[in-house]
Amino acid sequence: MASAMARRTIINHYSKLPFASSRCLNKHFVSPHTSIQQQDAVSFHSQVGGGAGLPSYMRGAVYREPNKPLTIEEFHIPRPKAGEVLIKNKGCGVCHSDLHVMKGEIPFSSPCVVGHEITGEVVEHGPLTDSKVIERLPVGSRVVGAFIMPCGSCSYCSQGNDDLCESFFAYNRAKGTLYDGETRLFLRGSGKPVFMYSMGGLAEYCVVPANALSVLPESLPYTESAILGCAVFTAYGAMAHAAAVRPGDSVAVIGTGGVGSSCLQIARAFGASDIIAVDVQDVKLQKAKTLGATHTINSAKEDPIGKILEITGGKGVDVAVEALGKPQTFAQCTQSVKDGGKAVMIGLAQAGSLGEVDINRLVRRKIQIIGSYGGRARQDLPKLIRLAETGIFNLELAVSRRYSFEEASKAFQDLNEGRIVGRAVVEIA
């Protein structure tokens, strides 16, 4: 209530100035039919929202309906609240999770700004943000953001399980908002709200909860480092937490796109012995060899389960990872592991998809089927940055395509058509 009164005071103040009228605030038209809440938002974003040196507006890539191109639209500069940070984006990864939303395969609030693995520069902190956050992420800091944005205070976050954050799933994944139940994105022309897929990173600026951010050292590039926030983050969560890969383990990765190919590098970093890449495209399998794969299988040409058994002396692998989200590859994953082995599922599927498993084998041979959505931002993101900084994880090899911001829709079209080997990144600034 107090903040609303303060914003109305600003409106009243500006309406009395010579250059303003009751319908025009700092050259931003406010319709007489616009609600008080929308007027507050327009005034707040355009009058006091810019901050020192910030523009009044930005561009963002908007998803409106399934199987239609993204549209580049103008927004008021988003404003962070307590515990949040405004980022000037530099790079944003091109991920299948966004594509699932854009194809209508996974329900999500629309219209929304997609994009959920970002790098950028800190330009503003929300009011009443803890001084420790400001000290850790001062204005001007180079940062990378994780797509799972932990609130830091729910029961799961309190136990260190950031990847299960209640607020993230209840608000962002369920409603497309941040954790006060509100979006930070408002269209320039109408003032209407637009939802956020994670931070809505495919835009010139975005608001991110501080717990999802880590400092990016000067030694790492903005563009390639964007993939640390999802592709590498997801792979690390699967390998470190779900599978708990140990030196000498045998690992099979089914699907070697952006996330799957990152799994290969992480498996190698953890000291896995046999690392088997499975895909249907020879070009991706050739790439997999440079990322750590010791064996490759084209499952369009040969039986992947039989081949994995052959490579492992008839036993199967210690860990199999499914990175596609398809019932067929789900079954291949569970059938590829040895007795007592772990089948880790990280690929998102079309809503309602089901996977089949041999129940008797599951029970008798102690097969473990584990779902893994991502890593733990506060614990894992700094570790991933260190892996990249030391060259243990090779960002240059992982990123194969770069697109301009204006080419964002084309990037997802290319992803949908299988034209991207590894990961692509949109360069925003």
Write the layout of secondary structure elements.
Elements: H1 2-15, E1 24-25, E2 28-29, H2 36-48, E3 57-63, E4 71-76, E5 84-94, H3 96-102, E6 112-113, E7 118-125, H4 131-136, E8 142-145, H5 155-158, H6 166-175, E9 185-186, E10 193-196, E11 205-209, E12 213-215, H7 222-225, H8 231-242, E13 251-254, H9 258-269, E14 275-279, H10 282-290, E15 295-298, H11 304-311, E16 317-322, H12 327-336, E17 337-345, H13 359-364, E18 368-371, H14 377-389, H15 395-398, E19 399-404, H16 408-416, E20 423-427
Parallel strand pairs: 6-10, 13-14, 13-16, 14-15, 16-17, 17-18, 19-20
Antiparallel strand pairs: 1-2, 3-4, 3-6, 5-7, 5-11, 5-20, 7-8, 8-12, 9-10
Structure report:
This protein is an alpha/beta fold. Helix content is 33%, strand content 23%. The protein is built from 16 helices and 20 strands. The chain has helices at 2-15, 36-48, 96-102, 131-136, 155-158, 166-175, 222-225, 231-242, 258-269, 282-290, 304-311, 327-336, 359-364, 377-389, 395-398, 408-416; strands at 24-25, 28-29, 57-63, 71-76, 84-94, 112-113, 118-125, 142-145, 185-186, 193-196, 205-209, 213-215, 251-254, 275-279, 295-298, 317-322, 337-345, 368-371, 399-404, 423-427. The strands form four sheets. Strands 5, 7, 8, 11, 12, 19 and 20 form a seven-stranded mixed β-sheet that branches. The chain has a six-stranded parallel β-sheet with strand order 15-14-13-16-17-18, sandwiched between helices. A five-stranded mixed β-sheet has the order 4-3-6-10-9. α8 packs across α9. The longest helix has 14 residues, at 2-15. The two termini are 37 Å apart. It comes from Clitoria ternatea. Its cofactor is Zn(2+). Keywords: Metal-binding, NAD, Oxidoreductase, Zinc. Belongs to the zinc-containing alcohol dehydrogenase family. One of its GO terms (molecular function) is oxidoreductase activity.
